[in-house]
Amino acid sequence: MSQQAPLEKGELNKALTLLQDWEHKNDRLIKTFKFGDFREAIAFIVHISFFADNIDHHPILINVYNSVTVELTTHSSGNKVTSLDVVLAKAIEKVAAIQ
Hints:
Helix content: 40-55%
Order of helices and strands: HEEHEEH
Distance between the termini: 29 Å
Number of helices: 3
Largest sheet: 4 strands, antiparallel
Radius of gyration: 13 Å
Strand order of the largest sheet: 1-2-4-3
Strand content: 15-25%
């Protein structure tokens, strides 16, 4: 994977307007998703893992029973948010919509 440039503040703010309920905190895009139970939460993780692996960009995932917190940052770009994080966030939203 080639190195991505960190998003400028304006680019980041624009991306956040397109990503419902995502926040920028500690140089990460973060969102917590809630599901009906543990199995649904794990199924969500499995579904997003396929896309993440295909683009070779892997999220930080925290699972507690029926919730999954997703944190996105680009390690190769100094742990900053890049366009790759936005692409993955949009794909994760699509998966969440069909869960």
